[in-house]
Write a structure and sequence with these properties.
Elements: H1 2-22, H2 26-37, H3 41-56, H4 58-68, H5 79-95, H6 100-114, H7 119-134
Helix pairs in contact: 1-2, 1-3, 1-5, 2-3, 3-5, 4-5, 5-6, 5-7, 6-7
């Protein structure tokens, strides 16, 4: 189950990255990636929920990133890291369907897989600050 959820999050990240960097239309990107992704119906729905949740709340999420990583203007954060943060912050602050530690761990694993050498430390640091606020 955890592996399937991680794959669903990875597809959500790929969709968010493409939407963010190329500006492709959300539904078309999600539909194409899900067709290629071979997820169960439940995990495909999970991917769709994550992407639409991030897209619908992008302004609020980006405001959180600016608050928790003030030294980094949002447009200067590498696109992969930025979208991993968006995904995790959506799960932590808005979605509340998984424990905070799970959302952080999943984000760090995505950063290790898709980001640069320093991505996982950066993502973990920002999300540590987010979780401190979320747990209040």
């Amino acid at each position: 189950m955890a592996g399937a959820r991680r794959k669903a999050r990875a597809l959500a990240l790929q969709a968010l990255y493409e939407i963010d960097t190329v500006g492709h239309e959300v539904d078309g990107v999600v539909t194409r990636l899900l067709a290629e992704g071979r997820l169960s119906e439940e995990n495909a729905a999970f991917t769709g929920e994550l992407v639409s949740g991030v897209v619908q709340n992008k302004e609020k999420i980006d405001h959180s990133i600016k608050s928790f990583a003030p030294a980094w203007p949002i447009e200067q954060i590498p696109a992969v890291d930025r979208n991993i943060l968006r995904l995790a912050i959506f799960e932590i602050l808005l979605d509340n369907k998984v424990p905070v530690k799970v959302a952080i761990n999943e984000a760090v694993e995505l950063a290790k897989t898709f980001g640069s050498e320093s991505s996982s430390k950066f993502v973990n640091g920002v999300l540590g600050s987010v979780s401190a606020v979320a747990s209040r």
